[in-house]
Amino acid sequence: MEQGEERTVHDLRIRIDRDLCVGFGDCVGEAPEAFKLDEAGIVVFVNPEAVDRDRLTRASDLCPVDAITVWDATGAQLAPS
Fold first, then answer.
1. For residue range 2-44, what is the model confidence (pLDDT) as tens digits?
2. Domains and CATH numbers, the chain
3. Quick check: 67 and 16 in contact, CB under 8 A?
């Protein structure tokens, strides 16, 4: 069963797939205000509202296992690209 967490921020729908995340932390490096690794080393949201749209999308794109997906208000997938 897939474990995930989803938020809507800046007209973006952002989903973390906790089953895919292996804790590289590239997303945290790009947007530490938005994401952190929990005690298990898996990404979780912190305060994504504090980060602009471009950084949120870039943080998702940096994930080597595509564990974070971003869609715009129309439902078009922006990241991973």
1. 578 999 999 999 999 999 999 999 999 999 999 999 999 999 9
2. 4-73 (3.30.70.20)
3. yes
